[in-house]
Amino acid sequence: TQGLEDLGACLIDGHWRLLEFDYHFRVLSYFLNLIDSNSWNVTCIPYKETIENLQDLMPMCILEHVFQQYCELSGDRDDEGEPLYSLLEDKTCSFLAEVLLRPAGKFNLQDFLQAWQDSVPEGLQTDLKQLDGLALTDLEARPQVIWFYPENELPEDIQERINVLFEIRDKWTLDQLHPYIEKLTTEKQNVNALLTKYARASNINGVRYYSSRHGK
């Protein structure tokens, strides 16, 4: 079940279900709007009050699932002794970036960065590292661009995945490739080992790049 939980699956009536993206966004929006309307600090979110306010808007199992997905115990308690929660910054920012990127095609990077920061709750800070395995950037383009490119939609077979990645981009750095290869690693083969086997390394101006073994 850990793999299902990692995918954000929800256990409903004994069956694992993935929330449809738009519904997931709607549920999260209710939650974030409640935080905003109450001017709650993103590190001081009351579980009990959240549940009471939103329980009529969605099934309880969905509400609790989304709360658990996006919050963690802060270690503090309110005046009544109820535990307070913190919003998970990276997870929240990543999902809200996906909301912007999914329908956009290639997005002017600077425009995206501004729109993204404006879309997240006050107190959270966006960072491109939050988009590892979710989006690609082209910093050589003028203007610079970003586009939706999710790891979970790539082939599970390592050779097929490598082929697809090198069709998208001729040369990758290790940092760029890592989030797209990491889930296919094993105890015996880490990312470096997989790239040694399936890709060709070269150094350009002191930077190591990986390209297709069958490329020119």
TrEMBL record:
Keyword terms, alphabetized:
DNA replication
Q: Work out whether the entry's keyword set contains Cell division.
A: no
Gene Ontology biological process terms, A to Z: DNA replication; maintenance of mitotic sister chromatid cohesion
Protein name per the record: Sister chromatid cohesion protein DCC1
Q: Name one GO cellular component term.
A: chromosome, centromeric region
A Pfam family per the record: Dcc1
Read off the InterPro entries from this record.
Dcc1
Q: Does the keyword Metal-binding apply?
A: no
